[in-house]
Automatic annotation (TrEMBL):
Protein name stated in the entry: 2OG-Fe(II) oxygenase
InterPro entries for this protein: HIF_prolyl_hydroxylases, Oxoglu/Fe-dep_dioxygenase_dom, Pro_4_hyd_alph, Pro_4_hyd_alph_FE2OG_OXY
Keywords: Dioxygenase, Iron, Metal-binding, Oxidoreductase, Vitamin C
Domain of life: Bacteria
Gene Ontology molecular-function annotations: ferrous iron binding; L-ascorbic acid binding; peptidyl-proline dioxygenase activity
Gene source species: Pseudomonas parafulva
Length: 210
């Protein structure tokens, strides 16, 4: 009898885990099947057309505010059971969460993610994906949903790596970028066309004193 393949050992997931362990970030240009990337892009556009996306805030909780001079994207958080392609993505990311836990012992408990739409000209200045008062976010994961993206259209994710090295990623459909949230400052450059993504974070358990 042959053993069932273990989904945690899928080569794409293993590559992400190995990259995170050795250098703190990973880029997988062909992470999602194109049909799923198209279905997710259509879902994001539908939500935008129906007015469901809202200007993203900066900060957390009561101190959160909209500041377009810092970030100009519009977002909507994703919950399970809303749409089939979103559920498939959440399942995939849960498998990645388990693979990361197995390889890096980060104790990741959950994954939260939102659609993000940057209108032409919008950007997100250099930042870290950690809140001063909440360090549960351990690993960031951004999945891009832009078909036929040209480098001349801008919209790159710029990561600031060790030793002053900068690394730009094109927001091509189906491409996934994963990095350690507390370690890698990054920014989103303005684009000449609408830029869609699914941005998420793997979180560990909080240190709730109560
Ligand atoms: C973010 C972010 C990067 C991107 O939402 O925190 O940095 O490429 N997004 O969209
Ligand atoms: Mn970020």
């Amino acid at each position: 009898m042959r053993a069932m393949p273990n989904p945690l050992e899928h080569p794409l997931l293993s590559a992400v885990v190995d990259d995170l362990a050795t250098r703190g970030w990973s880029q997988q240009p062909l992470f999602l099947p194109d049909a799923l990337a198209r279905a997710l892009a259509a879902e994001c556009r539908r939500r935008h057309a129906e007015g469901e996306l809202n200007p993203a805030g900066v900060g957390r909780g009561a101190s959160q505010e909209v500041r377009e001079a810092i970030r100009g994207d519009q977002i909507q958080w994703i919950d399970p059971g809303q749409a089939e392609p979103c559920d498939r993505y959440l399942e995939l990311m849960d498998t990645l969460r388990l693979a990361i836990n197995r390889g890096l012992f980060l104790g990741l408990e959950d994954f939260e993610c939102h659609f993000a739409l940057y209108p032409p000209g919008a950007f997100y200045l250099k930042h870290l994906d950690r809140f001063r008062d909440d360090d549960r976010r351990m690993v960031s994961a951004v999945l891009y949903l832009n078909h036929d993206w040209q480098p001349t259209e801008g919209g790159q994710l710029r990561m600031f790596l060790a030793d002053g090295v900068e690394r730009d990623v094109q927001p091509h459909a189906g491409s996934l970028v994963v990095f350690l949230s507390g370690d890698i400052p990054h920014e989103v450059l303005p684009a000449t066309r609408e830029r869609l993504s699914l941005t998420g974070w793997f979180r560990r358990r909080g240190n709730d004193p109560f």
